[in-house]
Design a protein that fits this description.
By secondary structure, the protein is of the alpha/beta class. It contains four helices and four strands. The chain starts with a strand and ends in a 7-residue tail after the last helix.
């Protein structure tokens, strides 16, 4: 069975898209190969993103932020999921090898912008992680019900 390739895209590729990549690999790694990238990538994955993923036994410590240009015209992707507002406005409108119907938009708040002490910030990271997991679980159930969306 051919794995569908899915790219999670956000601005910095340090929080939301990294958590989404890890979650999809955990939830459906046998059916999908997930990647993540940023329009303007940060230097490292946010330590609180790593921490909240470790809490649910998903290790993203080896992940590194990557630029969208690593994939443009180089990787044939089946899905692109934009997980922030800013990436939606700066993402290329034309994508080689990708049908517009395979572009999804799931905006999540940026947990790196959370204010307050460490516990408040951790709470925001957990909230966003859980929102991403919920959205992915719902989407995966939908995809399973429509097998024509997934390569065989």
């Amino acid at each position: 069975m051919k794995k569908e390739k899915l790219l999670f895209l956000c601005t910095g590729n340090s929080c939301r898209s990294q958590m989404a990549e890890g979650l999809l690999e955990s939830l459906a790694g046998s059916k999908f190969k997930s990647f993540s990238a940023g329009v303007n990538p940060e230097n490292a994955v946010h330590p609180l993103a790593i921490k909240v993923m470790e809490e649910i036994n998903i290790d993203i410590t080896g992940n590194k932020p990557k630029c969208l240009t690593k994939f443009l015209g180089k990787e044939q992707l089946d899905w692109v999921v934009i997980v922030c507002n800013k990436a939606k406005t700066t993402c290329p409108k034309s994508w080689p090898y990708l049908l517009d119907s395979r572009r999804l938009y799931w905006p999540f708040d940026d947990p790196a912008k959370a204010e307050g002490g460490k516990e408040l910030k951790l709470r925001k990271f957990r909230e966003i992680r859980d929102q991403i997991r919920s959205e992915l679980s719902f989407w995966l159930e939908h995809v399973r019900q429509m097998p024509e969306l997934v390569a065989v």
